[in-house]
Automatic annotation (TrEMBL):
Coiled coil: none annotated. The keyword Transmembrane applies. The lineage of its organism: Bacteria, Pseudomonadati, Pseudomonadota, Gammaproteobacteria, Oceanospirillales. Keywords: Cell membrane, Electron transport, Heme, Iron, Membrane, Metal-binding, Transmembrane, Transmembrane helix, Transport. It comes from Chromohalobacter marismortui. Its cofactor is heme b. The keyword Heme applies. Residues 9-173 form the Cytochrome b561 bacterial/Ni-hydrogenase domain. This is Cytochrome b561. It holds the Pfam family Ni_hydr_CYTB. It comes from the Bacteria. SUPFAM superfamilies: Transmembrane di-heme cytochromes. The chain crosses the membrane at residues 16-37, 49-70, 91-123, 143-162.
C-alpha cells in the first residue's frame, strides 16, 4: 500500500522516513565522531560527502513534507496531550530537517566556497554576509536536531515498551 492509513504508514512514508533517518544519522555521527576523535577514518570518509548528503536530505524532506501534507486525512485522529505533543515534535523536526541543509548551504555559499554536490560546484565565488550569518545556525541546529532525534527514538521505545501500543509497528511493518 502506497498511501498511509489509520493503521499503517504507507510504503512511501516508510521509505522516506528510513532513508532520511539513515542519512541524518550518518551526518550527525560523522560530525560528532570528528569532534571526539579529529581525523578519524569514519568521519574522513563521510565528510567529503557532507554537502551532497545534506542536499539529498533537503530534497527528500521537501518531498516528505509535501507527501505528509497530502496524507493527513488518511492518518489516525490525534487526541490527548501526548498526541498533540507528538504533532508539535514532528513539526519541529521537519522544520529543523529543512533548516539544517539550508543553513549549511548558506554558510558555504555565503563564505565564498560554493556548494559542491557530487563534486560539481554551484554558486561559487559568492561572498554574501547574510548567508554566512544564517549559516552560523548550522552547528547549533545540529545539537538541537540530535536532541529531537534522541527524543523521537526514546518516544518510539516508550510506545513499544511502556504503552505497548502499535505506534512503532505502524512505521516498521506492513
Amino acid at each position: 500500500m502506497l498511501r498511509d492509513s489509520p493503521s499503517y504508514y504507507g510504503s512511501i512514508t516508510r521509505c522516506l522516513h528510513w532513508l532520511i533517518a539513515i542519512l541524518v544519522i550518518l551526518q550527525l555521527t560523522s560530525s560528532f565522531f570528528n569532534i571526539l576523535w579529529e581525523g578519524n577514518v569514519y568521519s574522513q570518509a563521510v565528510v567529503q560527502w557532507h554537502t551532497t548528503i545534506g542536499v539529498g536530505i533537503l530534497a527528500l524532506m521537501a518531498m516528505r513534507t509535501l507527501w505528509a501534507i497530502s496524507q493527513l486525512r488518511h492518518r489516525p485522529e490525534h487526541r490527548g496531550a501526548l498526541q498533540k505533543a507528538a504533532i508539535w515534535g514532528h513539526a519541529l523536526m521537519y522544520l529543523v530537517l529543512l533548516l539544517m541543509p539550508l543553513s549549511g548551504m548558506a554558510f558555504t555559499w555565503g563564505s565564498g566556497y560554493g556548494v559542491y554536490v557530487f563534486g560539481t560546484a554551484y554558486w561559487t565565488d559568492a561572498d554574501v554576509s547574510w548567508a554566512a550569518t544564517f549559516g552560523q545556525l548550522h552547528a547549533p541546529l545540529s545539537w538541537f536536531l540530535s536532541a529531537l532525534v534522541t527524543g523521537h527514538i526514546l518516544m518510539a521505545g516508550y510506545h513499544r515498551l511502556i504503552r505497548r501500543d502499535d505506534t512503532l509497528h505502524r512505521m516498521l511493518e506492513r
